[in-house]
What does this fold into?
Amino acid sequence: MRANARFLWKPLLETPVGQQQDTQLVDLLEDGNAPPEEELNRNQLHNDLEILLDELSSRESTVIQTTFWLRRRHSSIADSNQRSNAPFSRTGTSDCNPCSIETAATTTSLQGSGLHLTSRFISNCRNSMPKVPSIQIGIPADKRQAIANGLGRVLADTYVLYGKTHGFHWNVTGPMFNTLHLMFMEQYTELWNALDEIAERIRALGFPAPFGGDSLGQLASIKEAKQNPAALDMVRELVSGHEEVARTAREVFKLAEEANDQPTADLLTQRLQIHEKTAWMLRSLLEV
Ligand SMILES: [Fe+2]
It folds into this structure.
């Protein structure tokens, strides 16, 4: 039976794998001490495959599944939880097993053969992954990193200023309510949209964009509003906030200019224009 299975699926087992394509799939499988029961053996294969695919990144997992015609029936987080609640309780058929993997060829060919995936298989699969090309945009990595860090501070300042402006929009009171309520709405909407532009520039430079209130709060030079100020104090606080972001943006602009990073310089120029104009408009409200 095992010999027949190997014969029928010989072409698959001889699939070249590895970076040099000098290894066959069959070489990466070891003939372990498979239990005699065919069902148990098949479940063991499913188990190994599930573990393998869980260990890989989502991208790696997709490539492996595509390459070897694997189809996971359940791959969401919820399904992972389901698996962890009932780990590998595979006493039924593969059709009703919640975590089974169907393979167009491998399951059938390997079931009953006593073959198990080895760590070498996992390692070779990883090595055969297409590599992500490095970023080559004419700006050295250290300069990209410095600019991304700087943009992270601009992002954080913008985020805190956004939150403050939105909060003031909600809580402003007094005779200027309507003017300030509407003005703050326009301003927080602009700041909200800017967050995306800044964060995506950080990503384009090859670095993760900071996120989350705690992280951004620590990075920001602007402090959160601790209480609800009077209407004109809100305006004063926002003037100061816009000027603070402008100072941060101006510092990062120098880095972008030195690194010949025109997109960042352009983005920061736009941000400087907005913040300085908004500060002027708010400051005008305070002039008698
Ligand atoms: Fe509103």
